[in-house]
Amino acid sequence: MIRRLHVGPRLSEAAIAHGVIHLAGQVPENHPEGDIAAQTREVLGHVERLLAECGSDKSRLLSVQIFLADIADIAAMNAVWDAWVVPGATPPRATVQAALADPRWRIEVVVTALQAEEQAR
């Protein structure tokens, strides 16, 4: 069985199957004009909120893909990431430069995580 959250005509914000959570790419919706640090904080907030809705948290990340409009932003993005990620639970991660769908976006983050064990049953 697949459970989908926030289903829209084009995509769902999350899908859960067999205790594995797949989030859609999270982008800065509230501060698309902000700098990379502000956009990263907002996007990671979206990730946390969705993981909580799915019965998980950032300590249960399986993998993360980060897309930056400009790879020169990696140091500033990493500063926010390093303060956010759970020490000892850092996931496998890829960070690449990519043309994003909205030119105001500086970052998009795609996450796969596990549900809490009691939620996955």
Offer a concise description of the structure.
With 121 residues, the protein is an alpha+beta fold. The chain has helices at residues 36-53, 74-84, 117-120; strands at residues 2-7, 12-17, 20-23, 61-68, 93-97, 107-114.
Descriptive overview:
- The chain contains 3 helices and 6 strands.
- It is globular and about 40 Å long.
- 27% of the residues lie in helices and 31% in strands.
- The chain has a single domain (2-120), classed as 2-Layer Sandwich (60s Ribosomal Protein L30, Chain: A), CATH 3.30.1330.40.
- With 121 residues, the protein is of the alpha+beta class.
- It has a 6-stranded mixed beta sheet with strand order 1-2-3-6-4-5, with helices on one face.
- The longest helix has 18 residues, at 36-53.
Label this structure with key terms.
121 residues; alpha+beta; 60s Ribosomal Protein L30, Chain: A; 6-stranded mixed beta sheet; 6 strands
Instruction: Give the number of helices.
Output: 3
Distance between the termini: 12 Å
Q: What Rg do the Cα atoms give?
A: 14 Å
Order of helices and strands: EEEHEHEEH
Q: What is the CATH homologous superfamily assignment?
A: RutC-like
Q: Which spans of ≥5 residues are poorly predicted at pLDDT below 50?
A: none
Oligomer: single chain
Number of strands: 6
Main-sheet strand order equals 1-2-3-6-4-5
CATH third-level topology: 60s Ribosomal Protein L30, Chain: A
Number of domains: 1
The geometry reads as globular
